[in-house]
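debug: dumping io for the single-chain case to check the tokenizer round-trip. Nothing else runs in this session.
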Amino acid sequence: MAFSVFLLASSLARASVISNFEVGSEGWTLADIFQPIANPPTIIGGGSVIYETAEGNPAGSIATADVSPNATFFMAPAKFLGDASSAFGTTFSYDMRLQTGVGQVGAAVMMVGGGLTLLGGAGNVPTEAWETFGVDLIGASFNVNARTGPTATDAQLQQVLGSLTALYIQPDVNNGPEFAYLDNVVLKTTVVPLPATLPLFGTALAGLGLARWRNRTKMKRAKIKEIKGAGPI
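debug: decoded output
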């Protein structure tokens, strides 16, 4: 029975991965990436994010100032990486706002893995108001290896998600300097359906255990009867 429970647990996808920054930066860092973006991206610098206790949606977020002529990205920690296959077909989302002004380009995300780099637009241009941005995790949402690269196929996105080695969110949405906040990053997953044969297998295991218990009980009763029949020594 314990074995069947283990199989049930292992048949489910990992839970959605979330960073809401309630108690800290959760391992997020910055990456300064050379332009134009290569495959894989060339990181020429980086650093720590700024943790904001009072700013957020709600309070608790991370932030960065754009101080580089290259592209600054928030870089996700290890909990978002690895086998993220179950995220295919869902939406990757996050909240962002600028301290002042309006962005010149739309929000964007970048995913690296399986020998590919995919870039995807995540919606509107960021402003001073908190807004949720999202990119549908289907091939058509991404371009391969460059913003102007060919549209990705579903198979290519699945290839990346299957061995995700890096995940970036771009707060650098102006040609000049800006200060951007990030909150509520969510990599959703879908639950892998339980195979139809697994409940039957679990039932079979339970039946096998019951049969073994009955057999042992019969043997024990027979032994007791044999001892009683022998009489006192």
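debug: round-trip ok. The first helix runs from residue 2 to 10.
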